[in-house]
Design brief:
The protein is mostly helical and 446 residues long. 77% of the residues lie in helices and 0% in strands. It has helices at residues 10-21, 24-36, 40-68, 72-80, 85-117, 126-138, 142-159, 162-189, 194-202, 211-225, 231-236, 245-273, 284-294, 299-333, 337-357, 372-399, 401-410, 421-445. The mean pLDDT is 90. The chain binds phenylalanine.
């Protein structure tokens, strides 16, 4: 049997895992959901979920992955026996579906790089930027071509393998994205009238909480941390025994929610300064950003740099999604890495086509009253990923907890464990599963 790949260094792993976590979920999805769900309350709930249930499940995924040295389907079987096998398929399938629509939005970021380079965004006004976005997504062919290009890039990185492909990319570009984000936050919060946006974003009005807000915040916490479908199990499987996993999980959660927080700050300060509608939906980031660039010296340069970094952030997340399914074919069916990446990449591209068209020519076609893209997003993030998290949490808490805890304790010599393991066990056993069921029920019935 070939030796399993490993991350080259601890920082490399944390950046790669943070690279999976930080992506379109932070810069595109988080701000538009927050805008639709009352701003500050959404932020508050999201943070609570990230640092309670989310981080516990993240730790469980990493530990399970490292202990089993397998992707989700194999990990559940190796550690839990045949009965648990199906739980892992769930994750593999979810990764597949998420990537199909994720890559469509990834394609938009590529389209925006091209627009920025060719001067198509120069001096954008809010109205002009809105028009540019609507024209792009409604076009029948262009978004598909970009979706194809984005999938092709994802395949190339996965082909190169975990350490050289994924780790090297993340190590260089993640810090760059963070710095650029800080600069843009600086520009956005000093725009005239940015204060109204900051108030909307930073002062939670808890009277606005509804069941839908709670579910959206929970599913965003999972989506953003990349948990619930086994991406972190897969990344954990490439870890050596040296790392302290609680510390790594804490770092990942802090980096991930930190980037989402900054992205929100940038977007809402600008949205209010430009008189845009915070509840405008999935176009929010793509309309707001060019308008900010239109208002700053050197804007066109910043625009190119930002969309390049956003595309890379999206790519490092997409790579982790494809890696789940590719690792499955490699581990369980002995397929070669290149064969698996190509085959799955092409299938996922085809699966994404209806999502892309649903924003333009197939606008009127609905599934359960939702356009295809909304349906794919809702089905995966509101149903499959929370269910995956319940199974994972039950499995970690009831089936493998003693083994996982022992393994984590083993690291204690000399290293401080940031999250007390007992609390973690209780969250996995009770709080996580019950909390998720309760939250989903609340969303259905209130
Ligand atoms: N966390 C990624 C983002 O925020 C998306 C993702 C979800 C990646 C689930 C892997 C698994 O963009």
């Amino acid at each position: 049997m070939h030796e399993r790949e490993q991350w080259k260094s601890r920082t490399g792993f944390i950046l790669a895992a943070a690279g999976s976590a930080v992506g379109l979920g932070n810069v595109w999805r988080f701000p538009y959901l927050a805008g639709e769900h009352g701003g500050g309350v959404f932020l508050a709930l999201y943070l609570v979920f990230v640092f309670t249930i989310g981080i516990s499940i993240l730790l469980a995924e990493l530990t399970i992955g490292r202990a089993a040295k397998r992707q989700p389907a194999g990990a559940f079987r190796v550690l839990g026996g045949g009965r648990w096998h199906a739980a892992g398929y769930f994750g593999v399938a979810a990764a597949f579906f998420v990537l199909s629509f994720y890559s469509v939005v990834g394609g938009w970021t590529l389209a925006y790089i091209v627009k920025a380079v060719s001067g198509g965004l120069d001096g954008a006004t809010a109205a002009g930027a809105g028009q540019t976005f609507t024209t792009l997504i409604a076009d029948p062919l262009k978004p598909l071509a970009y979706h194809g290009a984005f999938m092709a890039l994802t395949i190339v990185v996965v082909l190169r393998g975990v350490a050289s492909g994924i780790e090297a990319t993340s190590k260089l570009l993640m810090p760059a994205l963070f710095i650029l984000l800080l600069v843009l936050v600086g520009r956005a919060v000093t725009l005239p009238n940015a204060g109204a946006g900051l108030a909307f974003y930073l002062q939670p009005d808890f009277q606005k909480v509804t069941g839908a807000t709670v579910i959206a915040a929970l599913s965003q916490a999972f989506f953003s941390l990349s948990v619930g479908l086994g991406a972190m199990i897969t990344y954990g499987s490439y870890l050596s025994m040296r790392e302290s996993l609680p510390k790594s999980a804490a770092w990942i959660a802090v980096i991930d929610s930190g980037v989402a927080f900054l992205a929100g700050l940038m977007i809402f300060a600008a949205v209010f300064a430009f008189g845009l509608d915070p509840a405008a939906g999935p176009g929010l980031t793509f309309v707001t950003l060019p308008t900010i660039f239109g208002q700053m010296p050197g804007g066109p340069l910043f625009a190119v740099a930002f969309f390049v970094l956003l595309a890379v952030a999206a790519l490092t997340s997409a790579v982790s999604l494809l890696e789940v399914a590719v690792a499955y074919l490699i581990d369980e069916h002995g397929v070669s890495r290149s064969g698996a990446a190509l085959l799955l990449g092409v299938i996922i591209f085809i699966l994404g086509i209806p999502s892309s068209l649903s924003l333009g020519v197939w606008r009127d076609f609905t599934l359960f009253g939702l356009g295809v893209m909304d349906f794919m997003d809702g089905a995966t993030t509101k149903v499959i990923m929370p269910l995956g998290s319940i199974l994972l949490s039950l499995f970690a808490g009831w089936v493998v907890y003693p083994r996982l805890a022992r393994e984590l304790m083993h690291l204690r010599s000399g290293e401080r464990i940031a999250i007390p393991l007992r609390v973690w066990g209780i969250v996995c056993k009770y709080l996580g599963p019950l909390g998720i069921v309760w939250i989903m029920a609340a969303g259905l019935f209130f």
